[in-house]
Design goal:
By secondary structure, the chain is of the alpha/beta class. The chain contains 14 helices and 6 strands.
């Protein structure tokens, strides 16, 4: 029977990290991040990354993996997460997957389309053409070679247009034809829980308070430092992260600080709404009251004994 591994999901600002750390005070836990923004080095404030003291107290994995001018895929996450969980189990500790990137969770739990790896040369050529012609022109090109994919992808969705064209050019096979060629299930069974705040208004208040705290902690200065250190642009996945995109626009002079704050809070609310929609669609996820972690603790203790 496969080893049971627990996962704690939830929308942004719902208290996942605090609950995980509270559980770690009672069990020999190691936390595996399920967060697409925390993989980037130097992006600490705007991702609500655990503090140095918290990471010294409780081991965390899949944090600070790459620089913000690099890219990281759901497929790479799946590989890294499986390896991290297996290593934790081998040490006799209890892994707990924690995060809110639902695409990463789905990739781990259900597998993903077995797409070919990215080709940096092809990607660079597509980016150069997009800079010259614009993404709508490349979307029209995609519509000629893969109308099914183009119908699902917006004309200005740079990341997905680029990836679809890249797969076509690398393999001669449209990306839509790769869908359904999924990887196998992970080598352990997942028992998943989700913090679902009972009141949306309370979550909205937490989101606003957390972003204000990020600004006070130096989020603007963090992004300024990243822009000096790395060759970044607004289309990189790192700089499309909620909060970072809005600060980028502020630093580019597209809005004042008040408008930047309002846009970031609104974008975070929209992210939370999408996360909650994902969670409602996952029948296997068990709801968890944030003030009552006993169900999660019982599952973790059960996993520890197996």
């Amino acid at each position: 029977m496969p080893q049971q591994v627990c996962c704690l999901l939830g929308p942004t600002a719902s208290g996942k990290s605090k609950l995980a750390l509270d559980c770690a005070a009672q069990l020999p836990l190691e936390i595996v991040s399920v967060d697409s923004a925390q993989v980037y080095r130097g992006m600490d404030i705007g991702t609500a990354k655990p503090s140095r003291a918290e990471r010294e107290r409780v081991p965390h994995h899949l944090i600070d993996l790459i620089d913000p001018d690099q890219r990281y895929s759901a497929g790479q996450f799946r590989t890294d997460a499986i390896r991290a969980v297996e290593e934790i189990l081998a040490r006799g500790s209890v892994p707990l997957l924690v995060g809110g990137t639902m695409l990463y969770y789905r990739a781990l739990a259900a597998g993903i389309d077995a797409l070919p790896q990215a080709d940096p040369a092809i990607r660079a050529e597509i980016s150069a053409r997009a800079a010259l012609l614009g993404w709508p022109a490349l979307h029209a090109e995609l519509a000629r070679v893969d109308p099914a994919a183009a119908a699902r992808i917006g004309a200005n969705d740079a990341q997905r247009v680029q990836r679809a064209l890249e797969v076509w050019r690398a393999t001669g096979k449209p990306i839509s034809a790769w869908h359904g060629t999924s990887l196998a299930a992970p080598p352990f069974s997942l028992r998943s829980f989700a913090i679902v705040p009972p009141e949306r208004s309370e979550l909205h208040q937490r989101i606003a308070a957390r972003f204000d705290a990020m600004l006070a902690a130096g989020l603007i200065e963090e992004v300024e430092g990243l822009r000096r250190r790395y060759r970044l642009d607004a289309d990189l996945p790192s700089m499309r992260s909620v909060g970072y995109r809005q600060v980028w626009d502020y630093l580019e002079g597209r809005c004042d600080k008040a408008a930047m704050r309002a846009a970031a809070i609104a974008a975070t609310r929209q992210l939370a709404k999408r996360q909650l929609s994902w969670l409602r669609s996952l029948n296997e996820v068990e709801p968890l009251a944030p003030a009552n972690p006993e169900l999660l603790l019982a599952a973790l203790r059960s996993a520890q004994r197996t």
